Amino acid sequence: DRAPGGPTSMMHSGISQAREYDDPPGLHEKSEYLLREWVNMYHSPAAGRDSSKAFQVFVQQMHQQGILKTDDLITRFFRLCTEMCVDLCYRALSEASHNPTLLRAKCFHTLDAYVRLIALLVKHSGDATNTVTKINLLNKVLGIIVGVLLQDHEVRGTDFQQLPYHRLFIMLLLELNAPEHVLESINFQVLTAFCNTFHILRPSKAPGFAYAWLELVSHRVFIARMLALTSNQKLGVNKSVSSVLQGWGMYAQLLIDLFKFLAPFLRNVELTKPMQLLYKGTLRVLLVLLHDFPEFLCDYHYSFVDVIPPNCIQMRNLILSAFPRNMRLPDPFTPNLKVDMLPEINHPPRILTNFAALIQPSSFKKDLDTYLKTRAPVTFLSDLRSNLQVSTEPGLCYNISLMNALVLYVGTQAITYIHTKGSTPSMNTITHSAHMDIFQNLAVDLDTEGRYLFLNAIANQLRYPNSHTHYFSCTLLYLFAEANSEAIQEQITRVLLERLIVNRPHPWGLLITFIELIKNPTFKFWNHDFVHCAPEIEKLFESVARSCMQQKQP
Amino acid sequence: GVAPLGPVPLSKDNVYGLGMLEASYHHMPHPSDSEKLRQYLPRNPCPTPPYYPQHPLPHSDSLEFFTRLSTETLFFIFYYLEGTKAQYLAAKALKKQSWRFHTKYMMWFQRHEEPKTITDEYEQGTYIYFDYEKWGQRKKEGFTFEYRYLEDRDLQ
Fold first, then answer.
1. pLDDT at position A231, please?
2. Cα–Cα dist A194/A202, whole Å
């Protein structure tokens, strides 16, 4: 893909060509004439189905005007047409006195015609079976539109308008996803091209385009094409399982782009109205994904939660509540529910993030592996804190990504280790090992901020019934039971409780762990001071306890 | 608190991003921006009182629902919502009620009585048709319906 002349390089050359202005004399006039001709032909009743008749005539005109002579001229023609379409929209939108519906119709009149022209040129470039030419042309044109957009965004600043670009992208996406054989055969490369386009235009790069961007990324046709194929197990001729997973990976990247843009504002709880709206839109997309593609959220939960700030409880709960559709979760409120008897808790969840590779530097990873194998040297434990610490500024002390990776890696290694000993993870088998040494050390040695991040990293694994959920549930309860100070117990309670007092959904493993904590007398939960520190906290515990203890109505 | 790790000063890029987002908030994408141009019934969102229905009835996008609509409603949908799922469902419902589309006149016809003549190429008799220009049903006696103008695709 990244080979010289491959689709990605076509896109990047398109982006840079959007800034070249040394056009041969007369090309602008020619392009303007041709675009106007095409718009008229597109709207004429004689255009034929899908403009096919008009297109045949128009290609002749392009030949006559010499546009199709070289690739350079074709590229310039697309750049000039894009700029003309954009200019037309700016002019229309500035006519404030007119009816807004008419203004939009005026913009769409030209934009839709231009989109059809691009779609037809892509479809008919090269011969019918030559997919390379078609995909290269598509990437080139998308690159040009991206280039024009980025420049427009930079030059106009706050006067930037999303409309022309939004319309061009969505209509082109819809045209190229029509049920036609020639399009089906290049569908995966078409989607890849759009994903690359959207990634380049991510909100942190083009914030003035963020709303249109979210509309594009969450469009029902785009989501369906990117994610739906595996869910009904219908793989088309050119769709292999690996290309479907690639599709999931690309879509996950776009969500990560969105979370990364939101993160600093959400973290600070500085939510202006525009930011609130973008956040609300994000929640909506997540709800759709949770309902329609829960397996996708399951598989990428790690990468998502890694970039979502710790205070975004509900957003994180949406992701952590996802579970495979073929699974039936036992009601966490069932009295005497025996979690360790569930067959699912022996199966590891699928994690499509290479979290082990996130443990950096490699020397630290090597020391970690040595310690897990030999339980030595003890200095590894005492150095742990400094390895995780990146600054002394409050709120920014720790490398959260490294903390998350460390916790999940040590946990998965522990599960493997217990299995090799012919046993299964339980409150008794997880103790007294190199793995638990690390966890106990982190619980005791870290300061409040570090411990909060550490406990959150554990709680992020409390999801549907699987081996990770079970292992980390036991680990958290063990850390509570063995804590040498009430501060640790208070923080464990806090992390669990703050994830439960928000509105639904609540992850299954989280509920299971909290119910166990308050119900099982071995934890002496109700004897702790922090439970009774303030009347409103006490009431809160009682109400949570009541809802946890209550028998399910038949 | 809601920000357990405390606030962190926003970077220059963050401040720029927030400013650009705020500016674009004043010209948000419109629902019509990402759908085909609706020539006759463009979207026109406006605030409606909450005690009016805000959403269409459930299952109103099913053929079953469309068969319960009046023929005039179906004709309206057919001519004014071109290229939509609603148009497709309206055509299906009309066909179910024995209306047939004439591809030359672009109008729907229904037999008023058994045709006087039926050959392999045409049938002739009295028909009711819907005139979209006068917007009403008309009767036509002695009309020849040539089968080559009969729209007979099986709508799946």
1. 37
2. 12
